[in-house]
Amino acid sequence: MRRLARVTSVFVLCLSAAVLTTAASAASASIAAASSARSTHTKVKVARVKPGSTWTLKIGSTCESDSFAGRHKFSDVAVKGDTGTYKGRGTLTMTWKTGSSTGAVFKGTFVTANDNYIGPYVDGGQSQSAILVRAAASGCDVLTTAPESNSIVLGSSDIDTATVGGQGTVTPTGTIHFYVCSGNTNPCTTGSAVDDLGTVALAGSGSSANALSPPYAPTTTGSYCFLGVYSGDGHYASLSDGSTTDECFTVTPPLPGLVTHPASSSISLGSADSDTATVTGTGGVTPTGTVHFYECKGNANPCTTSRAANGGTDLGSVALTGSGTPATATATSTSFTAPSSGTYCFLGVYSGDTNYGSTSDGSTTDECFTVTASTLGITTKPARNPSPKGQPNNDVATVTGANGVTPTGTVTFYICGPESTVAFVPCTAAAGTEVGSPVTVSGTGNTATATSGPFTPTTGEVDYCFFAVYSGDGTYPSASDGSTTDECFLANTPP
Fold first, then answer.
1. Which residues of the chain are in CATH 2.60.40.10 domains?
2. E strands, 405-478, where?
3. C-alpha torsion 52→55→57→58, nearest 10
4. What is the pLDDT of residues 346-390, one digit of tens each?
5. For residue 100, what is the enclosing H or E element?
6. Strand, helix or coil at 88?
7. Which of 296, 290, 304 is nearest to 358 (CA)?
8. CATH of domain 142-252
9. pTM for this predicted structure
């Protein structure tokens, strides 16, 4: 036995993938292993299990590295308490006292054909086949995978990173096949995968190699899980990882681009305007949902739903329509007719959908327009033409608005004359004499009227001309009428 101890070869211990059998089968396997040991044992091979040798125990996908610290003893390097005995005649027995299963036993018999110890790992009345092999021939590999980001915004992409850790200086080779499952599949498997991202070759050095999946850009929000499947190679077994703990990420809705603008930035009183909203998504995903439109008066900065409710107008919701690249959709509000001139601002509120968050636009820069009252229809006409000398005459002004908004304000009247020329000269405020005081207009609908105080001609067979000036109001601008056609009359001499 002393000559056996002087041999210095190094081994690594691995247990093959688990195969459960009954306790009776384990016993049979042990008997067969012992028989094999007697027929295949050689001193040279057995001597390679020496004090100081490092081994790895593999049960399924679980690895535990240990060493032979003494000539005939076994102990756990990381967690003390595991023990074992090598008898030097082809049989190696180890008892596991730590870990999840106290008292688990591995009993392996050396096989000269491949320098392996083969035997059962007994655990709780059942046994798993296990193999002890040198590190140069095989090892205990571990696959770890993780997304590059745990959360991304829709339209972005994520990448899965896979790392295969081997033993010693034997670098894992082969490929990683990447898949993606949607809906937080637990775990993601090749059967539940919705997207096959293909295979990527491992690259690395030492005992570690890694691979990055192609970028994956989800088309909807929610939870997604990667799956990485290692192909295995001549040294390491195939493995996979698709757990929700390691491999999942979330896709959150982005805020789309929302641009809203009136059909016209300036309209005349009585005309209608409408608001158009354009919602731009990302990644080719067209926004759906609705846009709720509102209107605020008075250059509200910005227009909001509360301001719209306080004297504004709720124009209702309109469904978005659109497709294509870029992923845009639009909606146009119902028509809005302003009740008076001034500044008005629209507000568009996008509802959001399963892919995009809600957003709004009511800024004065994008959403406001002006309503102007064009030159009013003001007509003036003397009450009588001709008007007898010595008898009073009046001027009547009619101010015409729009959209049922009745003009308010006053009309100031003037008189010019007598005219001694054949060609009439229009009367003006500067040239004329004010007739009485300004008169308040009154009326309903689009029109209002005012009648001047009386003017009595003192000369006959001559012409006089009225001139009327409307003051304007908050809706309508000022206007005047002094045309010779409408405002002049003959003061004749009664018979």
1. 142-252, 257-372, 377-492
2. 410-419, 433-434, 439-440, 442-444, 447-451, 462-470
3. 170
4. 999 999 998 888 999 887 788 999 988 765 788 999 999 999 999
5. none
6. coil
7. 290
8. 2.60.40.10
9. 0.48
